[in-house]
Design goal:
Elements lengths: L1 H14 L25 E4 L9 E5 L5 E6 L9 E5 L5 E6 L9 E5 L5 E6 L9 E5 L5 E6 L9 E6 L2 E7 L9 E4 L2
Antiparallel strand pairs: 1-2, 2-3, 3-4, 4-5, 5-6, 6-7, 7-8, 8-9, 9-10, 10-11, 11-12
């Protein structure tokens, strides 16, 4: 009788599908007993509140291609990450004011360092502020389009994260009209 119980427990245990190891893509799991060899999308309730707040999309090799996150708990994504074939983050988008429109874009180099951020501060769906970063991650230059013509007319220059110079194009002709230098 005891042997029969052990066999029953083992057969039930072996029939339960294996959960992925943390960090392993479910798309790389062996699903040879019925089912696909690729999971195109995973949905995750990361805080166990009963609502999905992360969506992970996989490419044909099972690598993460895109990830979406719901940071304000309204069950809609407001943060998107895009990964390249080299499995590194290439681009990030955010809806910082949770109005359903992207208002921040961040771009990364092949080593995963953020090199540029773009912001839509007036809600028209187009960037009007650009930040460029040093390899250390500190801001190097800030550009602002104050009249919404798509071209910067204010520039801030930084050294080791500290503002050292501002330039302004007050009449929007593309030429610097005023310069401020800081010590």
């Amino acid at each position: 009788m005891r042997g029969l119980i052990v066999i029953l427990i083992l057969s039930v245990f072996l029939a339960i599908p294996r959960l992925p190891v943390y960090g392993e893509s479910p798309a790389k799991r062996d699903m040879s007993k019925g089912g696909s060899s690729l999971v195109g999308k995973s949905e995750v309730d990361s805080d166990f509140d009963g609502r999905i707040d992360r969506w992970i999309y996989y490419d044909n090799e099972g690598n993460v291609a895109k990830a979406e996150f719901d940071n304000n708990k309204d069950e809609k994504p407001d943060h998107w990450e895009y990964y390249g074939k080299d499995k590194k983050l290439e681009k990030l988008e955010r809806d910082n004011d949770f109005n359903g429109k992207v208002d921040q874009w961040a771009f990364f180099d092949i080593e995963g360092r953020q090199v540029r951020s773009e912001f839509d501060t007036n809600g028209d769906g187009k960037p009007d502020q650009w930040e460029y970063y040093e390899k250390s991650g500190k801001i190097e230059r800030l550009e602002i389009d104050s009249n919404s013509d798509g071209k910067p007319d204010q520039w801030g220059y930084y050294k080791e994260g500290k503002l050292i110079k501002n330039e302004f194009d007050g009449n929007f002709d593309g030429k610097v009209d005023r310069r401020e230098v800081y010590r």
